[in-house]
């Protein structure tokens, strides 16, 4: 009797076809691309969040500074660009963007009867200069006090030694302690406006700051002691790494600051400093105008709503007001800018801006980050 035998079937093994390989590769590439996009978006959002946190911290620091001095920090910049009665600081020299500025009066000021500015009467020069009323160097100067005492630090440094004077009767000793920010005084300019150094004519100029010295070699032997008393201020911010500080080396044609990092230029320590956002660009500081160089005297003939770069791309219901028209004759501005005393601007992830047009076709201003203060 025979037994049935199972049928032996041959198994044919075959590899992937070209089409199947391409499909698998496409899926893998799609997954990787999605991960890369997601990681890039997450990194972008993290930088935005860190920049917003930094700007909020600056707002707090500015408020504390104002409560201690009685005024918001003034605008520092280039006298030949905007608003100093003593223009002429050579571009590129030490202090060229650390001079105390104030706006010259408008050539066609608003009528005294009130009713708001008469924008039609403003000259083209008035409109252009108003857009330059900002500073990349004010924030580190007043909130961090960068630089030694020959610039704005609190406390004398003896030439060549870095030591403090031991004679308690000297003006330099009365500047102690060496750490902190020396009080800028009632003029906001370390005496450069109200009590400038006698051998350095030029009100508001960086080299006219009246800081004490015991040693003629430091360059301040002509200083007086009238402005030296007062407590040390700040610092009001904490900088965790050198990557948050840049050295200002110039401006592009549209007013964008040109910044160098430590090690990228010679004499980095001598360059005016700016505080960088988390995209590597300076945070720009704006404030309401002040009269005759006095940071306590607010100029009410215009507002931050007239600054085009601070305007949003879109307005919610009831959020917009009319202000100075931009290059496209767009009057739209925000109520927040109208009522604010100061503002901060970051160029955002694309690191670009258009300071003349609120809503440009390239979308340069669309991702700007703006913070207003009271």
Topology at a glance:
Elements: H1 18-69, E1 76-77, E2 99-100, H2 124-131, E3 134-135, H3 138-144, E4 181-182, E5 232-233, E6 245-251, E7 257-260, E8 273-275, E9 284-287, E10 290-291, E11 294-298, E12 320-322, E13 332-334, H4 335-339, E14 342-346, E15 369-373
Antiparallel strand pairs: 1-2, 3-9, 4-5, 6-7, 6-8, 9-14, 10-11, 12-13, 14-15
Give a brief description.
With 374 residues, this protein is an alpha+beta fold.
Number of E strands: 15
- Give the N-to-C terminal Cα separation: 107 Å
Beta-strand level of the residues, as a percent range?
A: 5-15%
Instruction: Give the low-confidence spans.
Output: 87-92, 213-221
Globally, the shape reads globular
Mean pLDDT: 78
**Secondary structure tally, helices:** 4
Q: Which secondary-structure class do the elements indicate?
A: alpha+beta
Strand order of the largest sheet: 3-9-14-15
Q: Using only CA atoms, what is the Rg?
A: 29 Å
Q: How do the helices and strands follow one another from N- to C-terminus?
A: HEEHEHEEEEEEEEEEHEE
Largest sheet entry: 4 strands, antiparallel
**Helix percentage:** 10-25%
């Amino acid at each position: 009797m025979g037994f049935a035998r199972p049928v032996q079937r041959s198994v044919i093994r075959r590899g992937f076809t070209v089409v199947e390989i391409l499909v698998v590769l496409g899926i893998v590439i799609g997954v990787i691309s999605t991960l890369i996009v997601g990681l890039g978006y997450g990194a972008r959002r993290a930088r935005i969040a860190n920049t917003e946190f930094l700007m909020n911290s600056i707002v707090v620091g500015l408020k504390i500074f104002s409560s201690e001095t009685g005024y918001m920090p003034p605008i520092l910049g280039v006298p030949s660009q905007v608003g100093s009665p003593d223009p002429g600081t050579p571009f590129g020299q030490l202090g060229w963007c650390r001079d105390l500025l104030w706006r010259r009066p408008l050539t066609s000021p608003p009528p005294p009867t009130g009713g708001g500015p008469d924008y039609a009467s403003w000259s083209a020069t008035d409109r252009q200069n108003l857009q330059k009323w900002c500073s990349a160097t004010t924030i580190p100067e007043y909130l961090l006090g960068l630089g030694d005492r020959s610039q704005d630090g609190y406390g004398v440094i003896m030439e060549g030694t870095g030591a403090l004077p031991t004679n308690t009767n000297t003006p330099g000793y009365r500047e102690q302690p060496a750490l902190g920010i020396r009080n800028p005084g009632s003029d906001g300019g370390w005496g450069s406006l109200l009590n400038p150094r006698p051998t350095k004519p030029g009100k508001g100029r960086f080299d006219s700051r009246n800081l004490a010295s015991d040693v003629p070699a430091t360059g301040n032997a002509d200083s007086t002691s009238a402005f030296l008393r007062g407590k040390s201020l700040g610092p009001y911010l904490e900088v965790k790494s050198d990557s948050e500080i840049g050295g200002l080396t110039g401006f592009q044609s549209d007013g964008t600051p040109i910044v160098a990092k430590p090690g990228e230029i010679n004499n980095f320590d001598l360059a005016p400093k700016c505080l960088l956002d988390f995209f590597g660009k300076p945070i720009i500081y704006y404030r309401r105008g002040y009269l005759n160089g006095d940071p306590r005297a607010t100029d009410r003939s215009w507002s931050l709503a007239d600054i085009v770069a601070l305007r949003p791309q879109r307005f919610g219901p009831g959020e917009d007001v009319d202000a100075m028209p931009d290059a496209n004759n767009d009057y739209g501005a925000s109520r927040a800018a109208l009522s604010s005393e100061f503002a901060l601007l970051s160029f955002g992830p694309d690191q670009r801006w258009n300071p003349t047009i609120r809503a440009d076709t390239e979308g340069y201003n669309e991702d700007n980050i703006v913070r207003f203060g009271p």
